[in-house]
Chorismate mutase (Neisseria iguanae), 293 residues
Amino acid sequence: MIIVMQKQASAEAVARVIECIRSRGLQEHVSQGEERTIIGAVGDERVFHPNELERLPEVERAIRVLNDWKIISREVRQQDSQITVRGVVFGGEKMLDIAVGFKPDADAVFIDPFFMSAGPYADVDNSSEKAQIDAMRQKIERIHELGKPVLVRIRDVRQIEAALVTQADILYLGGELMSNRALQDEVGRLNTPVVLCKDKHHRVGDWLVAAEHIALRGNHHIILGEAGTLSFESEHTYRLDVDAIVRVRRVTHLPVIADISSLWHSDMPQDVLYRLSLASGANGVVSSLGRLS
Protein backbone atom coordinates (compact mmCIF):
# COMPACT_ATOMS: atom_id res chain seq x y z
CA MET A 1 0.00 0.00 0.00
CA ILE A 2 1.15 3.53 -0.78
CA ILE A 3 0.33 6.47 1.48
CA VAL A 4 0.69 9.88 -0.16
CA MET A 5 1.12 12.72 2.32
CA GLN A 6 -0.15 16.24 1.70
CA LYS A 7 2.28 18.84 0.37
CA GLN A 8 4.85 19.85 2.99
CA ALA A 9 3.41 17.41 5.54
CA SER A 10 4.97 17.74 8.99
CA ALA A 11 7.43 15.26 10.46
CA GLU A 12 4.91 14.55 13.22
CA ALA A 13 2.25 13.51 10.70
CA VAL A 14 4.72 11.23 8.90
CA ALA A 15 5.76 9.66 12.20
CA ARG A 16 2.11 9.02 13.07
CA VAL A 17 1.58 7.12 9.82
CA ILE A 18 4.74 5.07 10.39
CA GLU A 19 3.60 4.21 13.91
CA CYS A 20 0.26 3.03 12.54
CA ILE A 21 1.97 0.85 9.92
CA ARG A 22 4.27 -0.76 12.46
CA SER A 23 1.40 -1.40 14.87
CA ARG A 24 -0.11 -3.79 12.30
CA GLY A 25 3.12 -5.74 11.86
CA LEU A 26 4.15 -4.10 8.57
CA GLN A 27 7.32 -2.23 7.68
CA GLU A 28 7.52 1.23 6.16
CA HIS A 29 9.59 2.59 3.31
CA VAL A 30 9.73 6.38 3.23
CA SER A 31 10.51 8.30 0.05
CA GLN A 32 11.04 12.02 0.62
CA GLY A 33 10.41 14.15 -2.48
CA GLU A 34 10.78 17.91 -2.85
CA GLU A 35 7.14 18.60 -1.98
CA ARG A 36 5.59 15.32 -0.88
CA THR A 37 6.51 12.37 1.26
CA ILE A 38 5.35 8.97 0.01
CA ILE A 39 5.27 6.04 2.43
CA GLY A 40 5.09 2.43 1.36
CA ALA A 41 3.59 -0.14 3.73
CA VAL A 42 5.45 -3.40 3.11
CA GLY A 43 3.84 -6.67 4.17
CA ASP A 44 0.34 -8.15 4.24
CA GLU A 45 -1.60 -4.96 3.60
CA ARG A 46 -4.93 -6.73 4.03
CA VAL A 47 -4.74 -5.74 7.70
CA PHE A 48 -5.49 -2.17 6.53
CA HIS A 49 -8.34 -0.50 4.77
CA PRO A 50 -7.19 2.62 2.90
CA ASN A 51 -9.82 4.68 4.73
CA GLU A 52 -8.08 4.03 8.05
CA LEU A 53 -4.91 5.69 6.87
CA GLU A 54 -6.71 8.47 5.02
CA ARG A 55 -8.29 9.56 8.31
CA LEU A 56 -4.86 10.28 9.79
CA PRO A 57 -3.76 13.95 9.84
CA GLU A 58 -2.09 15.32 6.69
CA VAL A 59 -2.64 12.13 4.66
CA GLU A 60 -3.84 12.96 1.15
CA ARG A 61 -4.72 9.43 0.09
CA ALA A 62 -3.86 5.75 0.52
CA ILE A 63 -3.86 3.37 -2.43
CA ARG A 64 -3.53 -0.36 -2.84
CA VAL A 65 -1.06 -1.02 -5.65
CA LEU A 66 -0.63 -4.58 -6.91
CA ASN A 67 2.38 -4.00 -9.16
CA ASP A 68 6.01 -4.08 -8.04
CA TRP A 69 6.27 -0.41 -9.08
CA LYS A 70 4.18 1.80 -6.84
CA ILE A 71 5.54 5.34 -6.55
CA ILE A 72 5.74 5.71 -10.34
CA SER A 73 2.36 4.08 -10.93
CA ARG A 74 -0.50 6.02 -12.48
CA GLU A 75 -2.65 4.66 -9.66
CA VAL A 76 -0.68 6.90 -7.29
CA ARG A 77 -0.71 9.92 -9.61
CA GLN A 78 -3.25 10.26 -12.39
CA GLN A 79 -1.71 13.37 -13.96
CA ASP A 80 1.42 13.13 -16.09
CA SER A 81 4.57 14.17 -14.23
CA GLN A 82 6.35 17.16 -15.72
CA ILE A 83 10.04 17.91 -15.28
CA THR A 84 11.13 21.44 -16.18
CA VAL A 85 14.80 21.99 -17.00
CA ARG A 86 15.99 25.44 -18.11
CA GLY A 87 12.45 26.27 -19.14
CA VAL A 88 11.99 23.10 -21.22
CA VAL A 89 9.15 20.86 -20.01
CA PHE A 90 9.64 17.09 -20.26
CA GLY A 91 6.21 15.46 -20.07
CA GLY A 92 4.27 18.47 -21.30
CA GLU A 93 2.06 18.79 -24.36
CA LYS A 94 4.95 19.65 -26.67
CA MET A 95 6.90 16.85 -28.33
CA LEU A 96 10.55 17.66 -27.62
CA ASP A 97 13.31 17.47 -30.21
CA ILE A 98 16.51 16.34 -28.45
CA ALA A 99 19.44 16.73 -30.81
CA VAL A 100 22.53 14.54 -31.05
CA GLY A 101 24.96 17.33 -31.76
CA PHE A 102 23.83 20.92 -31.54
CA LYS A 103 20.97 22.17 -33.71
CA PRO A 104 19.65 25.74 -33.34
CA ASP A 105 15.98 24.74 -33.30
CA ALA A 106 16.36 21.78 -30.93
CA ASP A 107 14.73 21.87 -27.50
CA ALA A 108 17.63 20.08 -25.78
CA VAL A 109 21.00 18.54 -26.65
CA PHE A 110 22.29 15.01 -26.00
CA ILE A 111 26.03 14.36 -25.60
CA ASP A 112 27.95 11.13 -24.98
CA PRO A 113 31.39 12.26 -23.73
CA PHE A 114 32.32 8.93 -22.11
CA PHE A 115 31.78 6.73 -25.16
CA MET A 116 34.39 4.04 -25.75
CA SER A 117 34.28 1.65 -28.69
CA ALA A 118 34.11 -2.03 -27.81
CA GLY A 119 36.52 -2.88 -30.63
CA PRO A 120 40.03 -3.77 -29.43
CA TYR A 121 41.69 -1.80 -32.26
CA ALA A 122 39.56 1.33 -31.99
CA ASP A 123 41.26 4.65 -31.32
CA VAL A 124 41.41 5.51 -27.62
CA ASP A 125 41.34 9.04 -26.23
CA ASN A 126 44.56 9.23 -24.21
CA SER A 127 44.04 12.77 -22.94
CA SER A 128 43.98 13.24 -19.19
CA GLU A 129 40.77 13.05 -17.20
CA LYS A 130 41.09 16.76 -16.41
CA ALA A 131 41.36 17.61 -20.11
CA GLN A 132 38.29 15.52 -20.89
CA ILE A 133 36.29 17.22 -18.15
CA ASP A 134 37.42 20.67 -19.32
CA ALA A 135 36.34 19.86 -22.88
CA MET A 136 32.97 18.63 -21.66
CA ARG A 137 32.50 21.74 -19.52
CA GLN A 138 33.24 24.03 -22.46
CA LYS A 139 30.78 22.18 -24.68
CA ILE A 140 28.03 22.34 -22.04
CA GLU A 141 28.70 26.03 -21.37
CA ARG A 142 28.28 26.83 -25.08
CA ILE A 143 24.95 25.02 -25.14
CA HIS A 144 23.81 26.71 -21.93
CA GLU A 145 24.59 30.12 -23.40
CA LEU A 146 21.78 29.43 -25.86
CA GLY A 147 19.42 28.43 -23.06
CA LYS A 148 19.19 24.73 -23.88
CA PRO A 149 19.38 21.86 -21.35
CA VAL A 150 22.02 19.16 -21.83
CA LEU A 151 21.54 15.41 -21.39
CA VAL A 152 24.85 13.69 -20.57
CA ARG A 153 25.16 9.95 -21.00
CA ILE A 154 27.09 8.27 -18.23
CA ARG A 155 28.40 4.72 -18.48
CA ASP A 156 29.78 4.16 -14.99
CA VAL A 157 29.00 5.30 -11.46
CA ARG A 158 32.39 7.05 -11.35
CA GLN A 159 31.27 9.43 -14.10
CA ILE A 160 28.38 10.93 -12.14
CA GLU A 161 30.59 13.44 -10.34
CA ALA A 162 32.27 14.58 -13.57
CA ALA A 163 28.89 15.11 -15.22
CA LEU A 164 27.57 17.13 -12.29
CA VAL A 165 30.74 19.22 -11.96
CA THR A 166 30.40 20.25 -15.60
CA GLN A 167 26.77 21.33 -15.01
CA ALA A 168 24.97 18.49 -16.78
CA ASP A 169 21.23 19.13 -16.55
CA ILE A 170 20.06 15.55 -16.99
CA LEU A 171 21.91 12.26 -16.48
CA TYR A 172 21.22 9.71 -19.21
CA LEU A 173 21.58 6.04 -18.22
CA GLY A 174 21.78 3.67 -21.17
CA GLY A 175 20.06 0.30 -21.11
CA GLU A 176 23.27 -1.47 -20.09
CA LEU A 177 22.91 0.22 -16.67
CA MET A 178 19.33 -0.90 -16.06
CA SER A 179 20.47 -3.68 -13.71
CA ASN A 180 23.18 -1.62 -11.98
CA ARG A 181 21.62 -1.15 -8.54
CA ALA A 182 24.68 0.64 -7.12
CA LEU A 183 24.45 3.34 -9.78
CA GLN A 184 20.68 3.61 -9.34
CA ASP A 185 21.22 4.11 -5.61
CA GLU A 186 23.57 7.00 -6.37
CA VAL A 187 21.31 8.82 -8.84
CA GLY A 188 18.37 8.12 -6.54
CA ARG A 189 19.99 10.25 -3.85
CA LEU A 190 20.42 13.20 -6.20
CA ASN A 191 18.02 15.99 -7.04
CA THR A 192 19.07 15.82 -10.71
CA PRO A 193 16.72 14.53 -13.44
CA VAL A 194 17.67 11.16 -14.87
CA VAL A 195 16.76 9.28 -18.04
CA LEU A 196 16.55 5.52 -17.43
CA CYS A 197 16.65 3.49 -20.65
CA LYS A 198 15.22 0.00 -21.04
CA ASP A 199 17.83 -2.63 -21.83
CA LYS A 200 17.51 -4.36 -25.19
CA HIS A 201 16.62 -7.75 -23.69
CA HIS A 202 14.60 -6.74 -20.62
CA ARG A 203 10.85 -6.59 -20.22
CA VAL A 204 8.80 -3.52 -19.39
CA GLY A 205 8.26 -4.81 -15.85
CA ASP A 206 12.02 -4.95 -15.23
CA TRP A 207 12.35 -1.41 -16.57
CA LEU A 208 9.68 -0.06 -14.24
CA VAL A 209 11.12 -1.88 -11.22
CA ALA A 210 14.47 -0.19 -11.92
CA ALA A 211 12.73 3.20 -12.11
CA GLU A 212 10.95 2.45 -8.85
CA HIS A 213 14.31 1.67 -7.25
CA ILE A 214 15.50 5.20 -8.10
CA ALA A 215 12.26 6.76 -6.87
CA LEU A 216 12.49 4.89 -3.57
CA ARG A 217 15.80 6.63 -2.87
CA GLY A 218 14.04 10.00 -3.14
CA ASN A 219 14.71 11.17 -6.70
CA HIS A 220 11.34 11.48 -8.44
CA HIS A 221 12.71 13.39 -11.45
CA ILE A 222 12.72 10.29 -13.65
CA ILE A 223 12.29 10.12 -17.43
CA LEU A 224 11.92 6.72 -19.08
CA GLY A 225 13.95 6.15 -22.25
CA GLU A 226 13.35 3.62 -25.02
CA ALA A 227 16.46 3.15 -27.18
CA GLY A 228 15.76 -0.16 -28.91
CA THR A 229 14.94 -3.78 -28.24
CA LEU A 230 16.25 -6.95 -29.88
CA SER A 231 14.94 -7.61 -33.38
CA PHE A 232 14.36 -10.95 -35.09
CA GLU A 233 15.96 -9.57 -38.25
CA SER A 234 19.60 -10.62 -38.66
CA GLU A 235 20.39 -7.54 -40.77
CA HIS A 236 19.07 -5.09 -38.18
CA THR A 237 19.84 -6.02 -34.58
CA TYR A 238 17.56 -3.54 -32.82
CA ARG A 239 14.14 -2.00 -33.38
CA LEU A 240 12.08 0.68 -31.67
CA ASP A 241 9.84 -0.93 -29.03
CA VAL A 242 6.64 0.98 -29.74
CA ASP A 243 4.59 -1.41 -27.57
CA ALA A 244 6.78 -0.61 -24.56
CA ILE A 245 6.30 3.14 -24.99
CA VAL A 246 2.53 2.76 -25.26
CA ARG A 247 2.37 0.57 -22.16
CA VAL A 248 4.50 2.71 -19.86
CA ARG A 249 2.57 5.81 -20.90
CA ARG A 250 -0.55 3.99 -19.73
CA VAL A 251 0.65 2.49 -16.43
CA THR A 252 3.00 5.23 -15.15
CA HIS A 253 2.91 9.00 -14.86
CA LEU A 254 6.55 9.44 -15.91
CA PRO A 255 7.66 11.22 -19.09
CA VAL A 256 8.99 8.95 -21.85
CA ILE A 257 11.49 9.73 -24.60
CA ALA A 258 12.51 7.62 -27.60
CA ASP A 259 16.17 7.50 -28.62
CA ILE A 260 16.22 6.60 -32.31
CA SER A 261 19.73 7.88 -32.99
CA SER A 262 21.17 4.35 -33.40
CA LEU A 263 18.07 2.53 -34.69
CA TRP A 264 17.61 3.79 -38.22
CA HIS A 265 18.59 1.79 -41.30
CA SER A 266 17.71 1.54 -44.99
CA ASP A 267 14.39 -0.18 -44.32
CA MET A 268 13.45 2.08 -41.41
CA PRO A 269 14.68 5.65 -41.94
CA GLN A 270 14.84 8.18 -39.16
CA ASP A 271 11.80 10.15 -40.30
CA VAL A 272 9.62 7.02 -40.04
CA LEU A 273 11.04 6.21 -36.59
CA TYR A 274 10.39 9.80 -35.53
CA ARG A 275 6.74 9.55 -36.53
CA LEU A 276 6.39 6.14 -34.86
CA SER A 277 7.73 7.70 -31.65
CA LEU A 278 5.22 10.50 -31.93
CA ALA A 279 2.33 8.09 -32.60
CA SER A 280 3.27 5.89 -29.64
CA GLY A 281 2.97 8.82 -27.23
CA ALA A 282 6.63 9.58 -26.54
CA ASN A 283 7.20 13.01 -25.00
CA GLY A 284 10.47 13.56 -26.85
CA VAL A 285 12.80 12.07 -29.46
CA VAL A 286 16.60 11.85 -29.42
CA SER A 287 17.81 11.96 -33.03
CA SER A 288 20.22 13.60 -35.43
CA LEU A 289 17.37 14.38 -37.79
CA GLY A 290 15.84 17.56 -36.41
CA ARG A 291 12.21 18.34 -35.75
CA LEU A 292 9.58 17.03 -38.17
CA SER A 293 6.31 18.86 -38.69
